[in-house]
Write a structure and sequence with these properties.
Oligomer: single chain
CATH superfamily of the largest domain: Glycogen Phosphorylase B
CATH class of the largest domain: Alpha Beta
Number of domains: 2
Number of helices: 14
CATH architecture of the largest domain: 3-Layer(aba) Sandwich
Radius of gyration: 21 Å
CATH topology of the largest domain: Rossmann fold
Strand content: 15-25%
Length: 377
């Protein structure tokens, strides 16, 4: 079988959510199926590290697809030509985009429907593209993979897709996310938080991530407890971060709020594993990978009680209303003061995390790909 894959988010040193998803699935799929040929479609010069084995053929397609006009050119012109030229049996796109112009059977992973549910939370220059193409992409695909039951239901409701066309395949967690010894934790705290305990957030600094409320809640927590605890935030600043800046400027505890920027694949697991607790109070998530990573690190979790986050966390997190600063602050205080609660959440997390495994995910997505390729008449 000749499997073509959209690999445009395999960017060296810049892997984020979609890139890690693509990387973790494909490196396993390629190893599990040496009998198949994988065509990796990149939109710029690639890193040889992403050519996982001899059964991978890397192909660079022009132009680099990082803007609506270039998205259209890449997916509707470059990709169809390449699929035809290389006689692909099936096309797999792991980032919610596909080609409308190709006749090649397609499997599409959908991570969330935020561009349709909350268009105000995406850049203005991309809104019309999302609004027009996302429903069409979803209807066009022969098979759909959703990363959570929440995403599946949202997709079926918003785009009116038959649920049986959608398979839920949970994400897994990288092996690097694991518990650390107390000595290692102290070394991380010495390097990043002046030796103090800290609450940890990782993800884009973005409106839907609810960072301003988190900062105000942390402020309340500090005012109430006086605890020598910091708030560390790891991730790149996305668009419209003025509210975040304002929240920090208004905080009485600016010195205890630390923006670390984008963290490497090596440092992020250590930061996660050394935290007093992980905090994710996002307003909308299709999965919520940092929650799962926390469970694998034996780090207690505070997260939103909405969208897909409770599905990932199960009973292994303290759930709060993300729209209530008081509720978030109370959750921070409870995790700080209640050692027994933290221990209980860690124990429950060890059971909850067993549902999420990249090897199982790769096998399940491959099965959808194989079935879809069989429809190529």
């Amino acid at each position: 079988m000749r499997i073509a894959v959209n690999t445009r988010f395999l960017l060296p040193g810049k892997l984020e959510g979609l890139g890690w998803y693509t990387h973790e699935l494909l490196r396993r799929m390629v190893a599990q199926h040496p009998e198949d040929e994988f065509l990796f479609f990149f939109d710029r010069p690639f890193d040889p590290a992403f050519v996982y084995a001899q059964n991978v053929r890397p192909v660079v397609l022009f132009p680099p697809a990082r803007h609506p006009l270039l998205w259209y050119a890449w997916f509707e012109w470059a990709v169809p030509r390449a699929l035809k030229r290389y006689r692909a049996d099936v096309f797999f796109s792991p980032d919610s985009y596909l080609s409308m112009r190709t006749k090649t059977p397609t499997v599409l992973t959908v991570h969330d429907l935020i561009p349709l549910q909350h268009p105000e939370q995406v850049p203005w220059w991309a809104r019309d593209y999302y609004r027009y193409f996302f429903p069409r992409y979803i209807r066009r695909a022969e098979q759909l993979v959703a990363v959570s039951n929440f995403t599946k239901k949202t997709m079926a409701d918003l785009v009116d897709i038959a649920p049986e066309k959608i398979t839920v395949v949970f994400n897994g967690c990288r092996e690097e996310f694991r518990p650390l010894s107390e000595a290692d934790k102290q070394a991380v705290r010495a390097a990043y938080s002046a030796g103090q305990e800290y609450f940890f957030y990782t993800g884009a600094i973005h409106p839907r991530k609810n960072i301003p409320r988190l900062i105000r809640a942390f402020d309340q927590f500090k005012n109430t407890t006086g605890a020598p605890v910091k708030l560390l935030l790891a991730g790149r600043f996305a668009w419209e971060t003025g509210e975040v800046t304002t929240a920090v400027q208004q905080s009485g505890h600016q010195n205890d709020i630390v923006f670390l920027g984008y963290q490497s694949a090596d440092s992020l697991p250590r930061l996660q594993a050394s935290a007093l607790a992980s905090v994710n109070v996002s307003l909308s998530e299709g999965f919520g990978l940092p929650v799962l990573e926390s469970l694998y690190c034996d780090t207690p979790v505070l997260c939103s009680n909405t969208t897909a986050l409770p599905e990932v966390a199960g009973n292994a997190a303290l759930l709060v209303n993300p729209e209530s600063v008081a509720d978030i602050a109370a959750g921070l205080e409870k995790l700080y003061t209640d050692t027994a609660l933290r221990t209980d959440l860690v124990e429950k997390g060890r059971r909850q995390r067993q549902q999420f495994d990249w090897d199982k995910a790769a096998a399940a997505v491959y099965q959808r790909i194989k079935e879809t390729a069989g429809k190529n008449g």
